[in-house]
Batch of 2 targets.
Target 1
Amino acid sequence: MILYGASGHGKVIIDILESMQEPHIEIWDDADRDPIWEYPVKKTPDPINVMEKMVISIGVNTTRKMIVERLGDVVSYGKAIHSSAIISRRAAIGDGTVVMAGVTINPDVKIGKHCIVNTSASVDHDCVLEDYVHISPNATLSGDVFVGEGTHIGSGAVAIQGVKIGKWCRIGAGTVIIEDLPDHATAVGNPARVIKINGKRL
């Protein structure tokens, strides 16, 4: 497996791959980087032409999307799912997605491509996460929650059953979402209140 990105997020994905007993781990980065533990970091080749699967090991949703769009069809993507995660056999997880230690994903959940479900997050039945979503550590999505493309849900946030969260939202740590949120909203507090739309303060 090739990891594109040698950041702290990449360290966590290395740990995941080791838990999966992945036999070959290679790390690329666009910048010159020091090794991560025993793993050297290689400069991203140009052009890219590889047969192995890849995970974009960068935590910023917009950056992951930009890299995937830039690479196009020249690579295929794998999944990194920690051996301690509890995942229903009736859940679907897209290519490029990372599921970290202690996560629970329940039946009929649909998770898109290049998502991050971070440490000890809980995603309950019938939730839908579109591509490039990041669910931060200890966040809880109750049943039938919809999360639009590129949204980042902060650590310890809670979404009650059935709410719809729009695309490219930013949800603050500890926020409690009890009603639908529009696209490009920044929301904080308990209950959640929208403080920005498209980066403009309300």
Target 2
Amino acid sequence: MVAESISANILIVDDEAAIRYSVSKTLQRIGYTVREAASGEEALEVLKGSWFDVVLTDIRMPGIDGVELVRRIKEANSDTVVILMTAYPNLGTAVEALRLGAHDYLIKPSSSQDIRASVARGVERAQALKRRRALLDAIRNSVHELSRAPEEEPESGGSDHEAVTVNAAFTPSAFVGEVTTSNIMILGPLVIHPGRYQIEVGNHLIDLTPTEFDLLLYLAANRSRVVPCHELVHEVRGYAVDEAEAREVIRPHVSNLRRKLKDAGQDADIIVNVRGIGYRLSETVDE
């Protein structure tokens, strides 16, 4: 569920000018900014100087084909979402492309509705990856600053609680203990593996879905407050709903996350439901 008016940059790659024109017009009509490339080589040159949320590419092209283009794009920027198009569906090619990181696979001729729907899902995915990266960068920057700053006593006239909640909208420094390597973060009893969608409790590795992983990170980044469900849906899933619907969207993800933590021997109540308001992380995260 993504608003079609969302701003996004799309790159269309196809050696047939008529297809590029048709797909570009389809996407421009709903507000996307679109550029075109007539080959894989041209696409790579365009990508060097510009950021695109989604690359929509044909598979069969002279020179660098679509599958090779996926591989090179993912090597350069793993957050770019790639959608493949082909008039010659082949299971082996599709599996290889998806293995390399392609987001979707369209069969030509595709209807305008199918193209718009696939690109909308791709844009939603790209926006989610941007939000996750921003969260991780904020967390790492906060930890870096904390590790450099000398310990200071709070000034008189204010409580510790006031000092923590001055910037309550986004306060990752309130919960992170330390970063052991550039790719691992420690959050209380949890070890976070950002690039793998995994957390570790004791000696147990827990695989999370992207939504579960983003949900945990967002709650962590807002450790000092209760986060409403509609905010979680917007920041984790990328679309807006009212609070009642948001509770129904978020509840199964929280339940699954709690179950996985419990199966690994961790207190499932690490995620606290504040009835009528939303969710927060338990104080045990700070222990």
